[in-house]
Amino acid sequence: MTGADRNPGSESPECEVPRPGDGLEAGLDGRKAGVLRTPSAIAKSGDNLLPAARATARLWRRFRLGYDQTRRLSRLARGLLGIVRPRARRGAANRLSREEAETLIAAAYKQGGVRGLMLKTLFQSGMRVSEFASLRCEDLSFEEQSLFVSNGKGSRARYVPILPELAQELRTHLRGRTAGDLFESVRGSKFSARRIQQIVGECARLAGITNKRVYPHLLRHSVATYLLSKGMELEKIQKFLGHESIETTTIYAESTPDLIRDSYRKAMGRT
After folding, report:
1. Looking at the structure, do residues 71 and 105 belong to the same domain, yes or no?
2. How would DSSP label each residue in 226-243?
3. Are residues 47 and 164 in the same domain?
4. 36 backbone dihedrals φ, ψ, rounded to 5°
5. pLDDT digits (tens, 9 = 90+) for 22-31
6. Catalytic residue chosen out of the listed positions 95, 115, 128, 221
7. Beta-sheet pairing, 140-141 with 158-161
8. What is the mean pLDDT of residues 127-133?
């Protein structure tokens, strides 16, 4: 006789479905029953979970639940118990040192074409690759020495400052062109985000940077960390990068032990 044919009344008490009044509903908002965030020592052991898994299997078999139903049931049970996903702690952002970034850009210039200027602009502007790939000539202001990001994350636009030397180099690159994509291939087409990723990776290999994976977002991490280490305020870096929340920007503060050390010494009255 299969589990589905058994008399429900013959099931062991551990397989009974919780009923109203059992106290589980209080966990729906995590206030009365308490929010369960950390598993017990017993639950951390895979072997000790086997009895619970067997009991759950019997319960699912009893109600003839399918795959989608068991998934939904798991979510409902977590809600009843007030179990929430633990917040993962993000590590410090990976980055290139300033010397590695300069070596990367120099290797790109040696290849000729627009690669060197592309990587320099990508690094110094701290843009996301999708933002960079969408840059047009009209987004460059020589008077303000800035680039306009029209398609930032969350549809947030912003102006990104650039150095006078980079502005002059971009002026030379454009040769009077005032419309179209800021960077074009030899065939006159725009560089896709995927192609830019490939170029960054190729230049990194030529630069001999093999101890880490180099990609466009790593350049963004790198310039943010560098600016922070040189004393730029976190709130200004947030606006420079186009972060909606300052919490996103604080990951770079965890990447600068020199800044932490200097701040500590200053607070302790040491220089």
Report:
1. no
2. HHHHTT--HHHHHHHHT-
3. no
4. -90, 115
5. 433 333 343 3
6. 128
7. unpaired
8. 96
Are 133 and 242 part of one and the same domain? Answer: yes
CA-nearest of 173, 93, 214, 189 to 133 is 189
> What three-state secondary structure class fits 184?
strand
Instruction: Please report where in the chains the tokens 């972060």 appear, as a residue.
Output: 243
Rounded CA separation 267/156 (Å) = 37
Statement: the pTM of the whole predicted model exceeds 0.70: no
- CB-based burial label for 237 (10 Å; 0-12, 13-18, 19+): buried
Is 153 among the residues known to form the active site? yes
Q: Which three-class secondary structure string do you get for 164-175?
A: HHHHHHHHHHHC
As a whole number, mean pLDDT of residues 105-123 equals 96
Number of domains the chain contains: 2
Q: How far apart are CA 27 and CA 87, in angstroms?
A: 19
Catalytic residue status for 158: no
Q: Please provide residue 244's backbone torsions phi and psi, each rounded to the nearest 5 degrees.
A: -75, -40
Determine the Cα–Cα distance for residues 127 and 166; give it in Å rounded to an integer.
Answer: 15
Choose, from 61, 153, 173, 195, the residue flagged as catalytic.
Answer: 153
DSSP string, 118-161: HHHHHHHHT--HHHHHT-BGGGEETTTTEEEESS-GGG--EEEE
Are 200 and 261 part of one and the same domain? yes
| Given the residues 95, 120, 220, 221, the one annotated as active site | 220
Instruction: Print the domain residue range for 74.
Output: 3-81
Spatial separation of the C-alpha atoms in residues 224 and 240, rounded to whole Å: 9
Closest CA to 120 of 183, 190, 192, 193: 183
Clarify whether 220 is annotated catalytic: yes
pLDDT at residue 12 is higher than 90: no
DSSP 213: -
The pair of structure tokens assigned to 3 is: 């589990």
Residue of 61, 78, 195, 217 marked catalytic: 217
Which of 252, 261, 265, 270 is flagged as catalytic? 252
